[in-house]
Amino acid sequence: MIRFEGVYKRYPGGREALRGVSFHLERGEMAFLTGPSGAGKSTLLKLVTLIEKPTRGTVIVNGQNTARVSRRGIPAFRQKIGIVFQDHKLLYDRSVFDNVALPLVILGLGPREIARRVRAALDQVGLLGHERHAPITLSTGEQQRVGIARAIVSRPEVVVADEPTGNLDPALSLDIMRLFARFNEVGVTLLIATHDLELIERFDGRRLRLVDGMLDADADDDAAAMIAS
Amino acid sequence: MSRAVRRWASLHVKSLASALERLAREPVATTMTVLVIAIALALPSGLRVLVGNASALSSGWQGAADFGVYLEPGTDEARARALADQIAGRPDVDHVDLVTSDEALADFRARSGFGAALDALEHNPLPHTLVVRPAGGPDADLEGLAAALGALPDVDFVQLDTEWVERLRAILDLAVYVVDVVSALLGVGVALVIGNTIRLEINNRAAEIEVVKLVGGTDAFIRRPFLYLGFVYGLAGAGAAALLITAVLALLRDPAAALAELYGSDFRLAGLSPLDASVLVGGGALLGLAGAALATSRHLQEIEPR
Q1: Which of B207, B208, B215 sits opposite A150 (nearest CB)?
Q2: Contacts of B215 in chain A (CB under 8 A)
Q3: How far is A47 from chain B (nearest CA, A)?
Q4: Kind and range of the H or E element at B253?
Q5: B8 and A108: CB-CB below 8 Å?
Q6: Is B216 in Cβ contact with A75 (below 8 Å)?
Q7: Interchain CB contact of B164 with A (< 8 Å)
Q8: What SS3 class is residue B196?
């Protein structure tokens, strides 16, 4: 589902954020991307969501080589991925409903289908009944759940999350992580960047540990096996 | 209607509604922008209406195309009447008025104020005059008619006094040309004003555009509300311009009629015709669309998620 092969990312100015990263996330797998700040977690996720392209190496998501996706092809590529952000990135001049509906409006679904799916997504994150509220009136944890509902409302097979619990207290963080685990149970492939090692102790799932732009082989046996093969 | 068409239509209706909602949210700023556009559009359109009125007025001056046919001095009045009947019988002549030398003198005395000087003259120096109005409108062969009349016996000379009308027409043609140039310049100005307004709007909504791009919004999807915004600005500006012109012309109507009456004319100032108004409003909407297209093509690509 997500495959990195010898991926390097060098930013203008010469900083190398990723240095030879290889791993393969199977369909339906859940993986936690860990590592200290500046290790390249965000860069790796940007390569998955096509915010950046690799300097060298290959990134394949949903069977598509990102290097071959043109500017015009990016929207269609992103429509198949759900993205959750640390700062939620909600539109604060619109209701909760409209925020969650956005990916479906982009897909051009009919209003009844949109209403049905938005309610289903809000139900899954436990926010049914908040459709008409403005996001600003919700707590941080609830706002993050709106962001998650938006990421899953179009039923993508891949969801990536960048520090989704970064601003939340431990109890709320646990809620959010359980939510992700539930999605994984129904077959969604998940890649979650987090620095909260204590939190992910409670969950199964692969660990991809980035140190200084490289995957720490000890943390991920599969990756080590792949590099060796 | 098929589902796809309905969806497409609903996207457009939504974009239009959201554009209107955005404009309503900041009524003062919106009103200012619309007024700037309205004034820029009203200026050339108003000038065009005024030039149109002047043209109508000048072509209404049929009298200007009349011929003065001066008979040889000493020709008697009976002969003058016979000539008048003869000329009136021509197919290219509408009608002929005879102004006898006595009438001409009386008229001159009344108008010129030289009464005392004229009394000093021993005899009337003025000839009989035939005022010939040609048939067939402004395109008729006036030169040919003048030559034919000049060749008649007892005709001294023929005065075709249309030069000043031609000069006036030339001036009006020039005015139309100037109005065209001014329209083009102000049209570009309106497109740029709207483009700049849209550019500011794009900057204000950069965060939103970034989010929409992240969840897979296509360029067309992102561009659409801004195009509608430009369209609505142009439409509203042009509508306000039409109202402005109509109001100003309504204020001018009575004074213009009073002035025309002093000249014995029943001329009435014409307002913005429905055709002019629809060209104005349609043109304004297109200019708004063009300005928005310019702004979105330049600035939407600059906003990319980081």
Answers
A1: B215
A2: 78-79, 83, 102-103, 106, 150
A3: 11
A4: helix B219-262
A5: yes
A6: yes
A7: no
A8: helix
Q: How many CB atoms lie within 10 A of CB B47?
A: 17
Alpha carbon distance B96, A128 (integer Å): 93
Query: What is the pLDDT of chain B when averaged over all its residues?
Result: 85
Strand, coil or helix: what is B157? strand
pLDDT tens digits, one per residue of B26-67: 899 999 999 999 999 999 999 988 888 887 777 665 555 677
By Cβ distance, the residue of A51, A103, A108 closest to B215 is: A103
| Alpha carbon distance B10, A150 (integer Å) | 21
CA distances in angstroms from A144 to A84, A101, A179, B176, listed in the order given: 8, 15, 11, 63
Burial pattern A111-143, b for ≥16 Cβ within 10 A else e, equals eeebeebbbebbebbebeebbeeebeebeebbb
Nearest residue of chain B to residue A87 (CA atoms):
B211
Buried b / exposed e over B193-213, threshold 16 CB at 10 Å, is bbbebbbebbeebeebbbbbb
Segment B202-213 shows an average pLDDT of 92
Average pLDDT (B181-208) is 93
pLDDT over threshold 70, residue B140: no
- Cα angle B212, B285, B197 (rounded to 5 degrees) comes to 50
For the record, the structure tokens of A220 come out as 């991920």
Q: Does domain A27-53+68-203 have CATH number 2.60.120.10?
A: no
Are A7 and A53 a contacting pair, CB within 8 Å?
A: no
Kindly tell me if the per-residue pLDDT of B141 is higher than 90. no
Q: Which residues of chain A have pLDDT under 70?
A: 217-229
Distant-in-sequence, close-in-space partners of B133: CB < 8 Å, separation ≥ 6: B62, B63, B65, B66, B67, B93, B94, B95, B96, B97
Query: Given this structure, which CATH class describes domain B67-160?
Result: alpha beta
B211 CB near a chain A CB, below 8 Å? Answer: yes
Measured between beta carbons, which residues in chain A are less than 8 angstroms from residue B214?
Answer: 49, 51, 78, 83, 85, 89
CATH 3.30.70.3040 maps onto chain B at 67-160
Q: Tell me chain A's radius of gyration from C-alpha atoms.
A: 17
Residue type, B214: L
User: How much is the ipTM here?
Assistant: 0.88
Tokens (6 digits) for A226 = 């792949």
